[in-house]
Amino acid sequence: MLRSKTIIGAKFHVFRSSDVKGDFCLGKWLVQPQRNTLQANGATKHIEPKAMQVLVYLAEHADQVVTKERLIAAVWADTFVTDDVLTRCIFELRKAFGDDAKNSQIIETIPRSGYRLVAAVRGAEAEPDAASVATRRWLVALATIASLMLLGISLNVGNLRRRIFRPTPSAPVQSLAVLPLANLSGDPEQEYFAEGMTEELIKDLAKIGTVRVISRTSVMGYKGAHKPLPEIARELGVDAIVEGTVQRSGARVRITTQLIEARSDRHLWAESYERDLRDVLLLQADVASAIAGEINIKLTPQQHASIAHPLDPEAHEAYLQGLYFWKKLTEEDTKKSIEYFQKAIQLAPDYAPAYSALAFSHTLLASFEFAPSRENYAQAKKLAQKAIELDDSLADAHAALGFVLCYGDWNWSAAEDQFKRANALEPNGEGAHGVYALYLSDMGRSDEAISEKKKSLKLDPLSVLSLENLGLIYLQAGQLEKAIEQFRKVLVLDSKSAGAHGNLGLIYDLQGKREQSISEWTEARRLSENSPSTIAGLGHAYAAAGQGREAYRMLEELRQVSKSRYVSPYEVAGVYAGLGNSEQTFLWLQKGLDEHNDSLVSLRVDPVFASLRSDPRFRELVRRIGLP
After folding, report:
1. Is 151 in a helix, a strand, or coil?
2. Distance, CA of 467 to CA of 434 (rounded, Å)
3. What is the signed CA dihedral for 18, 24, 25, 26, rounded to 10 degrees?
4. What's the pLDDT at 615?
């Protein structure tokens, strides 16, 4: 604790380094342990709670060499951690202070021994100079008031402690983002666990209250970033930021989180939670409930029950690994996610989220045309129905079933019912808004689709896939300039987006900019490593440019590719449409109909086939698909 002499006029504080609990100074820096902040020259830096505990311990033993073993024993009592965890905390402190490890002015590394705080430690507040009698009277009066307040606090009259010491937001928190939880396990192989815990916390918060919670896809871009929190908040459009760490050690898991008000960069709340690995979902529920309480949201018993569920540790681990691979959106990783979700179900047959996630993996195989549609949608439907049977309140399960009913069963009204049910259950859930928007676009309801997709983007503003999908909706609605604007936004975030380059290629084709179209499709093909859809897109671009020989060469390439992987007949039909060969176009579209290819749901709004819309065979095909 920082203490001052009681003599009026004493110039300096007496600092007891053995009892650091309040604020103190290191050089130009004001250190505030209770807030986990460092302040200097009007700037505030937030550091992890464990890093602050390391700093405080070093300050308590200023100018002494403190061994790594002593530091770890003091800061991580009763928890096994490796030296790497301590090293990471020291690195974070040095980075915050702007301290050079080779010429340290704050924390010195003593080779093969430990660390030493070399900066002078002093109290945070200066004493007043000698004062007048009137000043003394004011001090006495203030001391009396303070004594009365301390008495009230000690008795906790009217919950006074909490009302005085609990910081409150300067304005209601209506939106927040959970930044990726830092992995303090010291094991890079545990990154999936930290990412999974981040996603689960986001999902839990999205289920409660009316606060808008930014989706995992947008926040993961800040993993490892060191931007000021107010800047991150502005980019995401939120009022508050949640950041923290997760540490898994043996059969225990600890989460440390803090809530920061974005506009003021002010620390509102911080807490650590630790539980057995078997109770990890209850731990997440504790964190979500605490955050809800700090932003003045009271959970109903139903809401609390929806975010608390005991689960076998191995099942939960397999589930998190499945999520980790699913988010990569590649064929190989999607198949890996299926293996992990299946393992989770084997270990926990009543865990509804695992069935829902597995259903989405199968829809991904079909919708990204990694595999034929029919068999994957049939499997996804059973899984989504099972998830709903286990937990009818699970929004993701209803969204998955809606997707299957639309693109697998072509049952439009039933699909829309499921999308609406998902959105009603979880208004802050990004997934249901996103897939519902695609459904509306394919049904030709472009205005509704754009509105729904914009709702999705408020929850996931930096998602490349979401931005691409809004561009696709604009493209299908014939709003080409807005579509171009969207795909260019995508390329600012990810210059290697094959989808953005390919769709720009299609737009330039529609605008008669043949060379630009071929250039964009060529780049899309390179970035996708020769995916069938980009080969077909390039073939259509060649055909539209009058380069028939090159277009037929792309068709031959597709034939060769089909020997080793799935090639959609819908894509082949698109190349023949560009060549003006209607007979082959309808032949391949019929093949797509025979295998119930899900791309046919977009047929009526796909500009690739616009020239065929007056053909009676096209109208008959639309009728057989059942499109409204």
Report:
1. helix
2. 10
3. 40
4. 96
Longest dimension (CA), the chain: 104
Single-letter amino acid code for the residue at 22: G
Through-space distance between the first and last CA atoms of the chain, rounded to whole angstroms: 73
For 175-310, the fitting CATH number among 3.40.50.10070, 3.30.2270.10, 3.50.50.60, 3.40.50.1220 is 3.40.50.10070
Higher pLDDT, 289 or 492: 492
Q: What is the pLDDT of residue 18?
A: 41
3-state secondary structure labels for all residues of 318-337 = HHHHHHHHHCCCCHHHHHHH
d(CA 35, CA 270): 8
| Tokens read off for 388 | 């709903």
Which pLDDT score is estimated for 81?
62
pLDDT in tens, 342-359: 999 999 999 999 999 999
Q: What is the pLDDT of residue 298?
A: 63
In whole angstroms, give the CA distance from residue 276 to residue 606.
52
CB within 8 Å of 310: residues ≥ 6 apart: 278, 279, 281, 282
* CA atoms of 226 and 232, how far apart (whole Å): 10
User: Tokens representing 362?
Assistant: 């199968």
Predicted confidence band at 480 (pLDDT cuts at 50, 70, 90)? very high
Average pLDDT for 74-81: 70
Which residues 6+ apart lie within 8 Å of 481 measured at CB? none
- Mean pLDDT confidence for 188-194: 79
The topology under which CATH files domain 2-123 is: Arc Repressor Mutant, subunit A (1.10.10)
Tokens 């999936």, located at residue: 192
The arrangement of strands across the sheet holding 37-40 comes to: 43-46, 37-40, 29-32, 24-26, 121-123
Q: Which of 401, 346, 354, 350 is nearest to 379 (CA)?
A: 401
Q: Cβ distance 379 to 403 under 8 Å?
A: no
For 489-501, the DSSP string reads: HHHHH-TT-HHHH
What SS3 state is found at 309? coil
- DSSP annotation of 239 reads S
CA atoms in the 13 A half-sphere facing the CB of 216: 20
- Look up residue 387 and give its amino acid: A
Predicted confidence at residue 284, as pLDDT, reads 74
Residue found by looking up tokens 């286990």 in the block: 390
Give me the residue spans of the domains in the chain: 2-123, 133-165, 175-310, 312-427
Among the ranges 45-54, 76-85, 131-140, which has the highest mean pLDDT value?
45-54
Tell whether the torsion through CA atoms of 149, 152, 158 and 161 is positive or negative: positive
Helix H or strand E encompassing 146: helix 133-155
* Assessment of whether the complete model's pTM goes beyond 0.85: no
CB 273 within 8 A of CB 254: yes
Residue tagged 């604007």 (tokens): 485
In CATH, the number for domain 312-427 is 1.25.40.10
